[in-house]
Specification:
Oligomer: single chain
Largest sheet: 4 strands, antiparallel
Shape: globular
Strand order of the largest sheet: 12-10-9-13
């Protein structure tokens, strides 16, 4: 078995154990496990978006570089009347797809949850020497996560870290924390971090490294929910 496949199997087993330890109904646990399993499977596939979503657009794509690393921050806006999540997203650089490779983390090729009329900043980090990029969001979600209502999570930034709080009654799995630093309207730095699990009513702190120069800039941090009920 290849190492990537072994990792997926181990992660899947871990998800099962975490869900079994909860206090929600068996049906809720099963639904959450199915979402995680579908995301693990979808991460094995290459993602190439060729048809643009009419309601979710990439309004701004900003590239920042420092110390051999590149962060691409994409401002996404949902102009539709319903929440969206798990939409495929492709980054193009000089005519090639930057995040096409199979086996990338799921939210490196898919969008986070976005409320109707809302926006979210999605961040991709790479060592490729990118100077300019474009982004295209697809039409059909890879996973039917049924984002009828989005739990509200709180996130704050500290020195080299971010703290996420889940005041909702819905445990979260596979969270991604997105951060970016702005001075006025200019984005100067961006980064991302991940959190395997955040229980209902719990808080957790994760290391967070920004690419770019955030000194003197206002740092914003977002942690979109991944499980909605």
């Amino acid at each position: 078995m290849r190492s990537a496949e072994l990792t997926l199997v181990l992660v899947g087993a871990g998800v099962l154990a975490l869900l079994a330890a909860g206090c929600d109904s068996t049906q809720q646990k099963s639904a959450r496990l199915q979402i995680q399993a579908e995301r693990l499977l979808a991460a094995r596939e290459k993602v190439v978006v060729t048809r643009a979503n009419p309601f979710v657009q990439a309004e701004r794509v900003t590239v920042v570089r420092r110390s051999g690393r590149t962060a691409i921050a994409v401002l996404l806006r949902n102009t539709g009347s319903r929440p969206v999540s798990d939409l495929p997203i492709s980054l193009r650089v000089d005519g090639r797809y930057l995040n096409r490779r199979a086996g990338l983390a799921y939210f490196q090729t898919h969008t986070p949850a976005i409320a109707p009329g809302g926006e979210a900043t999605w961040v991709f980090v790479t060592r490729a020497p990118v100077r300019r990029a474009s982004a295209l969001v697809g039409v059909h979600p890879a996973v039917s996560a049924e984002a009828g209502r989005l739990p509200s999570l709180r996130a704050s930034v500290g020195a080299g870290s971010a703290t996420v709080t889940n005041p909702s009654g819905v445990p979260q799995y596979g969270l991604v924390v997105y951060a970016y630093a702005q001075r006025g309207t200019r984005l100067l730095a961006a980064g991302r971090a991940s959190l395997a699990r955040l229980g209902a009513g719990k808080s957790a702190t994760v290391p967070l490294r920004l690419v770019g120069r955030a000194s003197g800039a206002t740092v914003q941090v977002e942690a979109p929910p991944t499980i909605f009920k």
